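User: quick one
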Amino acid sequence: MTTFNIENVNVTSFDSMPTPEELHARLPLSDQAGAAVMRGREALRNILDRKDPRLFAVVGPCSIHDPVAGLDYARRLKALQDEVQDTLLLVMRVYFEKPRTTTGWKGYINDPDMDDSFHVDRGMENARKFLLDVSELGLPTATEALDPISPQYLGDLIAWTAIGARTTESQTHREMSSGLSTPVGFKNGTDGDIGIAVNAILSASHPHSFLGINGQGRVAIVRTSGNPYGHVVLRGGDGRPNYDTVSVAMAEQALAKAKLPANIVVDCSHANSFKNPELQPLVMADVVNQVRLGNKSLVGVMIESNLVAGKQAIPDDLSQLKYGCSVTDGCVGWDTTEKMIRDADALLRGVIRERQA
Ligand SMILES: O=C[C@H](O)[C@H](O)COP(=O)(O)O
Ligand SMILES: C=C(OP(=O)(O)O)C(=O)O
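Assistant: Done. Structure below.
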């Protein structure tokens, strides 16, 4: 019989992964972590439903590459949360999957050793352990859902999910979002198009049936009921910010036209700050000011923040990595983060009191 080199022509190997159930058994959800996730999700839903007058802030590193520094950051964020809890719900950015414009390190799950060894199995296990540790501190977590299989491994530890600018238009990500257990923020496209985020909210709010895996790692037909908590994340695009009052009003109009609730989050980073982290405080101050002037559609902000300001290239010798500094997009440092959050807290107190009255 003739043998053809006809399938998997460009695949070099299939290496086995533990199943989601196996990983859950090794790192079970603790009562403390589960309670923090549930509290976080409920608070987020209440903010989106206007039953909670506060704003939420998704704050944290562009990507986690060092769990020790990440946990150091989480402890500080938890202390800050306790200080500002009357005005802001802080949700820690725990981003393990990075969508790249072309190539580059694709995040801790894909390559935990940052040396192109791609131990995805260990990356996934360490990611789950890290999410458990953060949740056990009592902090809710936020992540970008990029790989459609990962939520089966990590979904019980996530309170808020982003679909990124590069995938908001993807049917696969809209289908996945329709089944996610968290509120989902859809970014506008990298070209600034808000329409794709509005279409994504509509699509994800409907039931879908699609291919995925189940807890036993078997390929399954996943049937979902639809996610009612999709919202827009304005991140700027095509070299132009879109957090200003006119852009926010245009997003409100697009949502109203689609008969969707006016729920808008502003990402202070990315094209809204021309990827210059030093500009993030200006964006945040502008959003807070819009809320003080009476805007009711702005429900949250996103800040890319780390222990140390800026970013660093991944060195060949990893012992040369600077502790607490981003290896992907530049971030504001911890001192600036505290100031941004404390300033917002002070400025929002009056508005939140009025909303409660
Ligand atoms: O937030 C991270 C980056 O903006 C995103 O992953 C794209 O990065 P890149 O353009 O450096 O690939
Ligand atoms: C990749 C990110 O953002 P965006 O999809 O807006 O580029 C991110 O927030 O890490």
